[in-house]
Write a structure and sequence with these properties.
It is built from no helices and 11 strands. By secondary structure, the protein is an all-beta fold. Strands 2, 4, 5, 6, 9, 10 and 11 form a 7-stranded mixed β-sheet that branches. The chain has a 4-stranded antiparallel β-sheet with strand order 1-3-8-7, with no helix packed on it.
Length: about 120
């Protein structure tokens, strides 16, 4: 299983980005799927997760601003990031988990929020 994350970049505070994570296999059976972030000098932490039934969880810091979604037909996971703030600056990693196949990480995409 290979995951290719993209969509990061430099954005001004208040701006938006959409991260994508393209998988080499069907992600329909992976449960959950999610996005994590790691800021400089900090541990990697969960940003958002999505379960197959549609249940989502979000870190308190991103609730109401970020939305996780998946496109099973195109084997892609998304993270829509709105109202970005400097504290969102981090490397973002996608993650998928399968009971039998295991847990996989994308390579990370850097998001920098700065004026």
């Amino acid at each position: 299983v290979q995951l290719q994350a993209s969509g990061g970049g430099l954005v001004q505070p208040g701006g938006s980005l959409r991260l994508s994570c393209a998988a080499s296999v069907s992600i329909g059976s992976f449960n959950p799927v999610g996005w994590y972030c790691q800021a400089p000098g900090k541990q990697r932490e969960l940003v958002a997760s999505l379960y197959r039934g549609g249940t989502t969880t979000y870190a308190d810091s991103v609730k109401g601003r970020f939305t996780i979604s998946r496109d099973n037909a195109n084997n892609t996971l998304y993270l829509q990031m709105n109202s970005l703030i400097p504290e969102d600056t981090a490397v973002y990693y996608c993650n998928v988990n399968h009971l039998n196949l295991g847990n996989y990480w994308g390579q990370g995409t850097l998001v920098t929020v700065s004026s």
